[in-house]
Amino acid sequence: MKRKIIAFLLAVGFTCCAFFFNGNVAYAENRTVFLGGAPAGFNMQTRGALIAGLSDVITEEGVKSPSKDAGLQIGDVIYYIENTEVNSAKDVERVISLTSGGIKVEYLRCGNICTAEITPATDLNGDKKLGIFIRDEISGIGTITYIDKDRIATLGHPVLDENGDLLKIIKGKIYACNITGCVKGERGAPGELRGVILKKEEIGVIDGNTEYGVFGTVNDKFDIKDLKKIEIGEGKMGDAVVYTTINGSTPKEYSISIIKADNAFSGNKNYVIKITDKELLNSTGGIVQGMSGSPIVQNGKLVGAITHVFINDPTRGFGISINNMLDK
Questions:
Q1: How many CA atoms lie within 13 Å of 136's alpha carbon, on the beta-carbon side?
Q2: Residues recognised as catalytic
Q3: Minimal CA–CA distance to 206: which of 43, 37, 31, 34?
Q4: Residue where a domain stops, chosen among 86, 113, 130
Q5: What is the pTM of this model?
Q6: What is the tens place of the pLDDT at every residue in 6-47?
Q7: Which of 2, 105, 156, 244 is the most core-located residue (most Cβ within 10 A)?
Q8: Residue 67 falls within a domain, yes or no?
């Protein structure tokens, strides 16, 4: 069964959240990391077999819809069939080929584990089918925030599934990427970076998808000698810059303003930022999908990363404090 690949979506905020200023939090004084800003391509194999579509099965007895009739829906994630773990379309095909009659399917829906009894249908080729399309991996484009020793941090927010839940992953890789174009953002329609993932240039292996971003281990062969070392700092209201890439693979510095700051907040929306750089505004309209993870620098120190765009104003968005990303 053909696997369907989807792109990462930069989460969007519909309204400006109220920020509560609870004083300062301590940060790792004099700690340094390597500054990011370069685009990266991601490929992740997900835990479970996600149902991306439902289909009919043509049999000798006519058209049958096993999964649809059993109540399964698009967005459900199948974890087990007959108590056997499945994580891909091949897993599903292998397990049902060894069964006869009805089978027990355990799946995740909106955070709850559910069960269903399904009788596979045999198609005209003699193959057993559940009548589903499976998506078992995802790929997309984001931005590297920093590299610290052998660790790499990206995105600044989690990758979510179709139900808005944290996507559970088995493994994944981070690759170099070349940005080839951009769809400009407008009110009500976030833009996006478009690029080519260079799978021959592996940067690292993904081992974590968290509220604070996607993290991994850097490939031993990845050369960091051209990356800039930078101290960790704490953001505050005022002028700052963001390092991001909207063409090619080399990041550039663009001016922004931090208009609200709450370093005490433990989530990934510590800052409200506004893009002020005319070149960036002319090219992208503001913050676009693919810029997640773009590092925010203020007074020569790394203070955070872009995470979200406001759907009603692409010139504004949220940023995460770098201290919430460190050591996660």
A1: 18
A2: 157, 277, 292
A3: 43
A4: 130
A5: 0.81
A6: 333 333 332 222 222 233 334 455 899 999 999 999 999 888
A7: 156
A8: yes
